[in-house]
Amino acid sequence: MDFLNSSLIHRLERSLDATSLRQNVITHNIANVDTPGFKRSTVKFEEFLQAELNQHSTGLEGRRTHEKHIRFGSTYAQNSDPVIATDHTTIMNNNKNNVDVDAEMSLLAKNQLTYNMLVQQMSHEMRSIRTSIGR
User: Fold this and answer.
1) C-alpha span between 49 and 43 (Å, rounded)
2) Angle of helix 7-31 relative to helix 46-56, nearest 10 degrees?
3) pLDDT tens, 104-123?
4) Distances in whole angstroms, Cα of residue 44 to Cα of each of 17, 36, 64, 79
5) Element (H, E) at 83
6) Greater model confidence, 112 or 64
7) What angle do CA 116, 117, 122 make, to 5 degrees?
8) 73: Cβ–Cβ under 8 A, 6 or more apart, which residues?
9) CA 17, CA 23: separation in Å to the nearest integer?
10) Distance of CA 91 to the CA centre of its chain
11) Where are the alpha helices (DSSP H) in 66-100?
């Protein structure tokens, strides 16, 4: 049985990738706070993941004993990759830059907390798998 191929592990892995990408985007925004004409970017992921999960969620998931068996029931989202979106509609400063450093620092702190929570959850799942195997 492939313990590491569960839908929860896959969702956690994709969420960690998205928070890592968000960290890079936010730090890029902060680094360009004084760059004239710079437009801030954001990462959109959670909305896509939730929509994909709602679309496929039935509450039950069938167990597959072979990779060629057809999936049915709840599946993990495979097509909801994080997307970087740039905000071209707003202006924050006279130099046509739209980065608010206070808001970006707040988003950075929130993203760090989310990342830490996901790492703890992934660690818990790995400990559970290790325990079920019997070390």
Assistant:
1) 12
2) 160
3) 999 999 999 999 999 999 99
4) 12, 25, 31, 13
5) strand 83-86
6) 112
7) 100
8) 58, 59, 60, 61, 62
9) 10
10) 27
11) none
- The model's pLDDT over 28-53, given as tens digits with 9 standing for 90+, comes to 999 999 999 999 999 998 877 777 66
User: What pTM value is reported for the model?
Assistant: 0.74
Q: Which residue has the tokens 């969702």?
A: 11
Residue 107 tokens read as 């988003």
Q: Do residues 123 and 31 lie in contact, with contact meaning Cβ atoms separated by under 8 Å?
A: no
Contact call for residues 29 and 104 (beta carbons, < 8 A): yes
State how far the Cα of 14 lies from the Cα of 19, in Å rounded to an integer: 9
